[in-house]
Amino acid sequence: MKRTVLEKGFVGILFVLVIVAFSFAERDTQKLFERYNTKSTVEISKQKVDYTAEANPQTSIENKPTRN
């Protein structure tokens, strides 16, 4: 009888420890998501997006030597 009570107590303590560990993990995950999302949005807004191609007038396709 004492053994079953002891096992039930042990299982209960382990269950509580697992719940506490998962709650800490969830909290840390939320903190990481907040850091990542704020950092990425700030970096994206600071970048200047320029989609124009820069042509170099000194480079020409005709000046390249070809192999025969």
In words, what does this structure look like?
This protein has 68 residues and is mainly α. The chain has a domain of 47 residues. It contains one helix and no strands. The longest helix is centred in the middle third of the chain and has 45 residues. The protein is elongated and about 95 Å long. The termini are far apart.
Structure characteristics:
single chain, 68 residues, mainly alpha
Topology, please?
Blueprint: H1 2-46
Describe the biggest sheet?
none
Count of helical segments?
1
- Report the C-alpha radius of gyration, rounded: 31 Å
Write down the overall geometry: elongated
What's the pLDDT, averaged over the residues? 79
SSE string, helix = H, strand = E? H
Low-confidence spans: none
* SS elements, strand count: 0
Put the structure in a nutshell.
This protein is an all-alpha fold.
